[in-house]
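wait is this the right file?? whatever heres the structure
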């Protein structure tokens, strides 16, 4: 669970790379509607700025998806966030 005191969400993973926090979301069972709600929560947290106040940045949201068409939709949903979308076949 990750919270900024107002919004809480359950990430698939939180990891540190090169001394920076990152969120990981693996898209394999949720509908895009459910994914959109979760990304909206990330945006709320980012807009509020509490992570940036504590860490100096908002963690990058990494999304691994099973479909190239969903990659485009995730990119649209994540606009305004630090994010990267990966097609699972490309990183196997």
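ok assuming it is, sequence goes like this
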């Amino acid at each position: 669970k990750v919270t900024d005191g107002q919004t809480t969400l359950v990430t698939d993973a939180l990891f540190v790379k090169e001394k920076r926090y990152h969120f990981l979301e693996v898209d394999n069972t949720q509908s895009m509607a459910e994914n959109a709600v979760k990304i909206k929560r990330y945006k709320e947290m980012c807009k509020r700025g509490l992570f940036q106040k504590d860490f100096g940045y908002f963690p990058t949201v990494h999304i691994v998806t099973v479909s190239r068409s969903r990659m485009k939709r995730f990119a649209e949903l994540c606009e305004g966030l630090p994010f990267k979308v990966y097609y699972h076949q490309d990183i196997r």
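The beta strands are 2-3, 8-9, 13-17, 20-27, 60-65, 83-87. so i think its the right one actually
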